[in-house]
Amino acid sequence: MTEPKKRVAILISGRGSNMTALIEAAKAPDYPAEIVGVFANKPDAGGLQIAAGQGIATAWRWHKDYPSRTGFELALSDVLKLWRPDFIALAGFMRLFTPEFTEKWQGRMLNVHPALLPLHKGLHPQQQAIDAGDSESGCTVHFVTAGTDEGPTILQRRVPILPGDTAETLGARILVEEHIAYPEALAMLARGEVSFAG
Ligand code: GAR
């Protein structure tokens, strides 16, 4: 008997190109996960319309409408209760969580970051890599823990940093790899080939 597909909610803040890569991958009949909803922390996140156009449930809660991080997370949790995801995939979701939220989802929440973690956490990682004089960069898909851009790595893909690269040209090169790495990492998690051990 085939295993039921794992239910995945995607959280975004922007254009959602990684979200789109996950949605496309999940269309394959043998992909082990299905996308059950896309949530954004702002009403104008471009990815919301793309997801809705694919017939996927969407919701947004503007974080500025909530007096505290916890209040926002309670609103998010209410949406998640409806969607009943097994896993959460952060795809350009630019809000930090409380430790209570990350602990609740420990081992079940993934993020993609455009750097070879543990190098270059936080904002502008592509520029950080260029400024550091690195010869290569890439992307990391990792489990989310309380520390920003920390948590055990599931997989990385590498790209060269070329002479004359800007944050934009390097970012575009990395993004191509993100779109390969993220569906692959999510499939590994959904098949039980990786688990949290941190
Ligand atoms: C991606 O490059 C992702 O790795 C990055 O934001 C971009 C979102 O693009 N995430 C982070 O920097 C998280 N620390 P997308 O909306 O097109 O997927």
From TrEMBL:
For this protein, what reaction is catalysed? N(1)-(5-phospho-beta-D-ribosyl)glycinamide + (6R)-10-formyltetrahydrofolate = N(2)-formyl-N(1)-(5-phospho-beta-D-ribosyl)glycinamide + (6S)-5,6,7,8-tetrahydrofolate + H(+)
Q: What class of enzyme is it?
A: transferase
Which superkingdom? Bacteria
CDD domains assigned to the protein according to its UniProt record, in alphabetical order: FMT_core_GART
HAMAP family for the chain: PurN (MF_01930)
Tell me the protein family, please.
Belongs to the GART family.
User: What is this protein called in UniProt?
Assistant: Phosphoribosylglycinamide formyltransferase
Q: Which gene encodes it?
A: purN
